[in-house]
Amino acid sequence: MHTAASTPTRALAGHQIQPLGLGCMGMSEFYGAHDDAESLATLHAAHQLGVRHFDTADTYGFGHNEELLGRFLRGLSSAQRAELVVATKFGIVRQPGQYERRIDNTAAYIRSAAEASLRRLGVECIDLYYCHRRNPEVPIEDMMGALADLVRAGKIGAIGLSEVSEETLRAAHAVHPVAAVQSEYSLWERGAEARVLPATRELGAAFVAYSPLGRAFLTNQPPADNSLAADDFRRALPRFQGEAGQANQQLHTSMAAMAAELDLPVATIALAWVLQKQPHVLPIPGTRRQRHLAQNLAASTVVLPMPVMQRLDSLFAAGSVQGARYPDAGWAGVETR
Question: Is residue 282 part of a domain?
């Protein structure tokens, strides 16, 4: 059995919001074909269901994702807009049609990237602005100094970091408060539990969990590599391929049996586990389709029994998931392995 609770709120960039946000990346790139009309309908449906945290980046669709989010924002009143945390990111520089990237954290690039994001989003201030990936050749003091200048200028409201180590987080926080750290975290990927999650909790920074459903692995219908679109980047992810993929399917089978016992979707259980495990984590599951929203957001009010939490912890203990989480090119700028 599971019990239901009222929807709590969690702190992010000066706002108290419901803990589940919406990751918008897949509305523009990486997961096959996309449909702007369907995506806009999903954005509005998410807002009507109480979502107040929307996450994008300048590299998603080479600006398309920010422009799409900007179209959604223009449909809101100023009062509705003031309730939101709109987050975007800088630092990954790619060429169209290529997954390979370089990382730019220079002050000049940060200034130009922020201005471009402000234009695409159609806003005067970015609520939460992340360094998407770190280039260690740029001193952290220089990068954070450039971001602090944007805060003072009213261009950004709060500073975030993505996929950084505990050491980088502490060094950055000493220059200017870091409001949030975004990294991959789920049953599928628990590396942050060792050092980064405790450090964010200590420093009072939110932890934003991307891919909290393991890129759709932790759902009722996990993708099989032979069913993915030709341009779906999961075709290149080791965890979906070969022997690793087959071994991970066995984990899913066990989790699906637990979900059936509880009469809940796999996705709801996966998100509820994150919320119960980490009281300062805000997951941002991504979906392009309205039908997935309700079962994702239901996790906010589900309380899993402790034996279920323990079974999930055991099933997805360190080392149980097979394969690296990125191909070689995807590790550029990632400090957390």
Answer: yes
